[in-house]
């Protein structure tokens, strides 16, 4: 699933291409994409909208229009945008024609992605109900993060995957951040002391920034809008490296489950404090 670094990479590439452009025609080919709304009505409402800016909140891509409306896009497992016609592709779910003759295509193999057209003033209330603060923003302080972890008996891996705690963090970068912090993924979140909370906050930010710098990780069907791929998968410390030696101590990377998610970790570097 595209996580914060991958969605931020998509945003970075789409923004200069879309900002100032007007949608002259929209076609939604899969009703599931905008359910429960009528796909023909959503397509008709998009036509004539002029893009003001392209933003990101957590794992959501937010296309703001000059009218005050916004199109909220969640890529889920396999959603992706391409700035080019893709021909006869059974996985194309929507096609948007721009006033500069370019085509924005949305494709999604597993059909879990969603689009929602929100009216002026509706975007912040919608997202505030679902997301915490941005982990790379100034509001993601050690004090705020510590309050979200306090008293939680859930494994820390599961706790930081809660989007109300760390918006945009997913399985990949959670594993990487916990390895960087030397914290076992099954450690109850509420047992972290202030120093550990502060360290984990720093490593979450470091892991996400590293992912953005590498333009995300290309796994499964993630592709950038220009057709390129990311490089973060070549620099994972633990994720997807079962049995390989830890970059820090040489111990083979192990795998467990936390909150129902497959979780990679180093049994030696991250052993301390498991309860």
Q: Spans with pLDDT under 50 lasting ≥5 residues?
A: none
Radius of gyration: 20 Å
Q: Give average pLDDT, whole number.
A: 92
List how many beta strands DSSP finds: 10
* Euclidean distance between termini CA atoms: 30 Å
Topology as a string of helices (H) and strands (E):
HEHEEEEEEEHHHHHEE
Structural class: alpha+beta
**CATH fold group of the largest domain:** N-terminal domain of MutM-like DNA repair proteins
Question: Which CATH C-level class of the largest domain is it?
Answer: Alpha Beta
Q: In one word, what is the shape?
A: elongated
The CATH homologous superfamily of the largest domain is named MutM-like, N-terminal
Helix content: 25-40%
Strand content: 15-25%
Which CATH architecture of the largest domain is right? Alpha-Beta Barrel
Count the DSSP helices: 7
> How many domains is the backbone divided into?
2
Major sheet strand order: 1-6-7-5
Structure description:
The chain contains seven helices and ten strands. The protein has 275 residues and is an alpha+beta fold. The chain has two domains: 4-128, MutM-like, N-terminal (N-terminal domain of MutM-like DNA repair proteins), CATH 3.20.190; 142-265, Helicase, Ruva Protein, domain 3. The chain has a four-stranded antiparallel β-sheet. A hairpin with a 4-residue loop joins strand 6 (92-98) and strand 7 (103-108). Helix 1 (4-18) crosses helix 7, helix 4 crosses helix 7 and helix 6 (171-181) crosses helix 7.
């Amino acid at each position: 699933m595209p996580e914060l670094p991958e969605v931020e990479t998509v945003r970075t590439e789409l923004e200069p291409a879309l900002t100032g452009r007007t949608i002259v025609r929209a076609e939604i080919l899969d009703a599931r994409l905008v359910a429960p709304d009528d796909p023909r009505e959503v397509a008709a409402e998009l036509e004539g909208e002029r893009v003001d800016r392209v933003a990101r909140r957590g794992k959501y891509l937010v296309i703001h229009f000059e009218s005050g409306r916004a199109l909220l896009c969640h890529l889920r497992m396999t959603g992706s945008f391409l700035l080019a016609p893709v021909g006869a592709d059974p996985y194309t779910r929507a096609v948007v024609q721009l006033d500069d003759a370019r085509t924005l295509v949305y494709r999604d193999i597993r059909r879990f992605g969603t689009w929602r057209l929100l009216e002026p003033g509706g975007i912040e209330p919608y997202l505030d109900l679902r997301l915490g603060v941005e982990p790379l923003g100034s509001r993601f302080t050690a004090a705020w993060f510590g309050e979200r972890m306090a008293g939680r008996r859930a494994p820390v891996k599961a706790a930081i995957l809660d989007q109300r705690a760390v918006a945009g963090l997913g399985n990949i970068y959670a594993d990487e951040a916990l390895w960087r912090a030397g914290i076992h993924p099954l450690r109850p979140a509420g047992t972290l002391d202030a120093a550990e909370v502060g360290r984990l906050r720093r490593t979450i930010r470091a892991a996400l920034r590293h992912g953005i710098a590498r333009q995300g990780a290309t796994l499964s069907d993630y592709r950038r809008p220009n057709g390129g791929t990311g490089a973060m998968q070549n620099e994972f410390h633990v994720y997807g490296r079962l049995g390989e030696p830890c970059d820090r101590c040489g111990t083979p990377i192990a795998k467990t489950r936390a909150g129902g998610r497959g979780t990679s970790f180093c049994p030696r570097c991250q052993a301390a404090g498991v309860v």
